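Entry 0007
Protein: Aminotransferase
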Amino acid sequence: MPQLARRVGRAKPSVIMQVAEKAKRLKAEGRDIISFSIGVPNFLPGEHVYAAAREALAKDSGQYGSNRGTDALLDAFIAHMEALGLSGYGRANCSTGIGAKHVIYNLAEALLDEGDTIVFPTPYWTSYMDIAEIVNAKVDLLACPASQDYKVTPAQLDTALAKKPKVFLFNNPSNPTGMVYTRDEIVALADVLVKYPDTWIITDDIYNRMLFDGLEYANFMQVHPQLRERTIFIDSLSKTYGMPGWRVGFMAGPESVAKAITTLNSNHITNLPEIVTAAAIAALTGPQDVPTEKCAEFQAKRDQVMAVMNAIPGVVCPRPQGAFYVFPDISCAFGKTHGGVKIGNDVDFCNVLLDAKGVACVPGSAFGEPNALRISYTCPTPQLVPGLTRIQEFFAELV
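Output (structure tokens):
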């Protein structure tokens, strides 16, 4: 029998989706399940987005679209970047994809040859490692434990870039930790980046509108404009606008990179659907009240989650200031038992928690940090306090 390509053996199913599927299965069996697992915003976009989609459907041309994205969509994205303080981009600097994950995969194809090195901090979004392994790149991980607020330091970055990796991948605000780099921290890291002109920089900033406590978004290019010639900015509609299923991602960077991504699109997807494009334009250019309201709601939920995490003896949880995650270090539970079942690691913890209390979380090892777990607090508001109470009870019952 013919064999599959070797790269398929390097591809792994999403751990996050595995946890979500198990929670869904238990719920279908009649269990009372509260899911803190999957990173979906759990709200819908404004009515103007649906109106634009309906209008586009009524006028559907049935034709192929642009591999790069329509002019109107690119212009809406450029205006969005300008509002973030990222100016000077034209359509030739931009391209689109079926979500940010697809854009990042295309960038891996465009920037990394087999054996090239990509470096990124740990904890990391699970797909970073998965994509790197599929394209057979080497990965250099920068360990950033809870003791340093899950943030990479300039010294760590300097040591890593001195090895001349092909790509540095940076996520701010962070999934899975919710941590946000301040402007001063961005300046300090950018001061290091300018010393190493042979490394591409990818900034995965899809949570840039979900900032709490009055923090403002900051990017390397704002503080060191010369980094623009090798920096690629990633964004998405999924989180900010409650549109994960619509699958719209963006990139902006050097023209050569945008052209490469567009060429890959011509072979992979051809174009974003016409109706999706219309909805995306409406989301970016229309009223922003839904994203604004949801950001305030998430900040309030963050406060509720942190109050519980801070009250559990032994748990260490840096205070996140963005996205919609908390990432507590729960290693204090390792070696203990619950209901006679021993907890040896983060995977055991999440399995026993789900079986015993009906609360689904993702083990931190999925993100490269086996001492922690990720809580996504976007569940319906009435489920938040009961879910947190169950976690608190679970810790209290450990022996």
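Curator remark: The longest helix spans residues 289-311. The chain has two domains: 6-44+290-396, 47-285.
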